[in-house]
Write a structure and sequence with these properties.
heterodimer; A: 121 residues; mainly beta; seven-stranded mixed sheet; four-stranded antiparallel sheet; globular; B: 107 residues
Chain lengths: 121, 107
């Protein structure tokens, strides 16, 4: 059974940094691309970033490019999101997700329970 | 970016009804479309991929159709547990984009 468990969320001041983690189990982690998707309070879903199975390819939403960095540790089945220069508009629940890929694009079949990031002074 | 537009934004229906939600892409996306269900305070759940393929374990009361720019999600014989928000998402081209969501409420 695929399990994705996020951690690392919390309250941070504007301009601060936070590192999110996602612990994966139930599948061969290094064979699958992984994504972060976020949801601001009361709003819809927004894709944030995707990383290929080997970690060699990364993709980012324009809204986070240059501030966020996605990475993975295939030895320990972990996905990370380093978030710098945080803004109030980054306040959201952050989900990690994975699934099969088609044409290089990830189909988000499995989702974690999410971790809340609040950016406020 | 490819814009995804869902309609309606909200929908009221009775238990036992059949409802259809529409998703339109701003450009052709072949069949690279997924549908998700989300209940309050919970993570999204994948229902359908490739426009019409059911994810494992998803009941056949959910069905999807469409190709190109116009897609539909149909839910038959609504039960109380089906009342939730539904989102479409294209995975044809980066960045992946979601529709704004459709909130399905009990009438």
């Amino acid at each position: 059974e695929v399990q994705l468990v996020e951690s690392g969320g919390g309250l941070v001041q504007p301009g601060g940094s936070l590192r999110l983690s996602c612990a994966a189990s139930g599948f061969t982690f290094s064979n699958y691309a992984m994504s972060w998707v976020r949801q601001a309070p009361g709003k819809g879903l927004e894709w944030v970033s995707t990383i290929s199975g080997g970690g060699g390819s990364t993709y980012y939403a324009d809204s986070v490019k240059g501030r966020f960095s996605i990475s993975r540790d295939n030895s320990n089945n972990m996905l990370f999101l380093q978030m710098n220069s945080l803004r109030a508009e980054d306040t959201a629940v952050y989900y990690c997700a994975n699934g099969e890929t088609e044409g290089g694009m990830l189909i988000h079949a499995y989702w974690g329970q999410g971790t809340l990031v609040t950016v406020s002074s | 970016d490819i814009q995804m537009t869902q309609s309606p934004s909200s929908l009221s229906a009775f238990v036992g009804d059949r409802v259809t939600i529409t998703c339109r892409a701003s450009q052709g996306i072949s069949n690279h479309l997924a549908w998700f269900q989300q209940k309050p305070g919970k993570a999204p759940k994948s229902l359908i991929y490739a426009a019409s393929s059911l994810q494992s374990g998803v009941p056949s009361k959910f069905s999807g159709s469409g190709s190109g720019t116009d897609f539909t999600l149909t839910i038959s014989s609504l039960q109380p547990e089906d009342f939730a928000s539904y989102y479409c998402q294209q995975y044809h081209r980066y960045p992946p984009t979601f529709g704004q969501g459709t909130r399905l409420e009990i009438k």
